[in-house]
Amino acid sequence: MPQEAQRFIGLDVHKSYVVAAAVDVQQSLLLQPRRIAINDLPNWLEGHLQPSDAVVLEACSMAWTLHDMLEPLVGQVTIAHATHVKMIASSLIKTDKRDALVLARLLAANLIPSVWVPPPRVRQLRELVGHRQDLVKLRSATKSRLRALLLRYQIQPPPGDIGAPKLRVWWEDVTLPASGQLIARQNLALLDQFSAAINEVEDELARLSVSEQWCAQVTCLVQLTGIGMLSAMTLLSAIGDISRFPSPKKLVGYSGLGVRIHSSGDVHRSGGITKSGRKELRTTMIEAAWVVIQFSDYWKAKFEAIAERRGRARAIVAIARMLLVFVWHVLTTGEADRHSDPDAIARSLADWARQYRVARLLGLSRTAFIRRELDRLGIGQAIEEVRFSGRMNRLPPPGTISLSA
């Protein structure tokens, strides 16, 4: 809290209006709660706020926009964690005016549980990742409708992806009533639209993955078995700035992969994971864990040892938690994982360059891109060739590709 703060202002934000209230450090009321139309808010803020003010509002869909609007006008802007505020100041009487006043008084008492305000680049990445996840869900739902349609008419589809382009001829020949043909045709058209939209978003994520803002961090992540470009960008969107987690334990807690613990008096027990924090961080790590136990003997042995004692479901969560600790270390140090094989890392870099054509975006050959990222990690000096496109490809000598290329 800035020492010079004279007024503590709480904003209760809604879609079409905001309720504002203010108190001083002694909790005396300075501004009666008042309702301001959202369209009038910019003018009201400029006319009433001062550099000595401290403002708080709860996290919501408009929080970042309002934060950016308020920041030049006041000494401090705090985004409150809505759930934690409710736990601190729950009441049987809830009104907009009361909520604004409670926020102001909690801020004056320095009792606001705040959330991290991501910079614009992280916000934009989160929007893209979230949009892609929404499109994938819509595509999956469309495929489910097609399967339900076939089941309704007792038609067995060929094996594989029901919406794959190679099955379109089969769909043209399948016998359905007129209503079923209409439903199938429209759902197949929707599949094409969703797939094209997903590809467009993934192309943008690939472009961002080799940008100056993200490339070094993505390289640190894709070296880990089970994490590709899309997984890396999802993790970075959720984590943001790794320096805000002073230890891997803090990152594990943020992911919701930590274990529930109840320890009070003579009662000591633990349960499942907390599932608090960012869901996409948790699910991405669990997906990576299923991949890593298939391709790494080291992780497979750990998984089988835990599964024998605690079952497969708990074992895969434990592997995801361990992997997240590795994620914290590589992002914090910016170095190669000591357990990784440089040849395997080179192949992962080749897959990143091939699948998303990122080397072309940088004006580099694929081999030059691989060498550049190996140099960034400080490994692979002895690697001269990497297999991709069905043949061995010679890499440039170490140190010959500038990181600014």
Helical content class: 40-55%
Give the H and E element order.
Answer: EEEHEHEHHHHHHHHEEHHHHHHEE
Instruction: Tell me the overall shape.
Output: globular
The low-pLDDT segments are none
Main beta sheet: strand number and arrangement?
5 strands, mixed
| % residues in beta strands | 5-15%
Rg from alpha-carbon coordinates: 26 Å
Number of domains: 4
Structure description:
The chain is of the alpha/beta class and 405 residues long. It folds into four domains: 7-108, Nucleotidyltransferase, domain 5 (2-Layer Sandwich), CATH 3.30.420; 120-209; 215-333, no CATH class; 342-394, no CATH class. 54% of the residues lie in helices and 14% in strands. It has helices at 41-48, 63-70, 82-88, 96-108, 120-152, 168-173, 178-209, 215-222, 229-239, 248-255, 279-295, 297-310, 312-333, 342-356, 358-361, 366-377; strands at 7-13, 17-23, 29-37, 53-58, 76-80, 259-264, 267-273, 385-388, 391-394. The protein has a five-stranded mixed sheet with strand order 3-2-1-4-5. A two-stranded antiparallel ribbon has the order 6-7. The longest helix is centred in the middle third of the chain and has 33 residues, at 120-152. It is globular. It starts with 6 loop residues before the first strand and ends in an 11-residue tail after the last strand. The model has no long low-confidence stretch (mean pLDDT 92).
Index terms:
two-stranded antiparallel ribbon, 16 helices, Nucleotidyltransferase, domain 5, five-stranded mixed beta sheet, alpha/beta, single chain, 405 residues
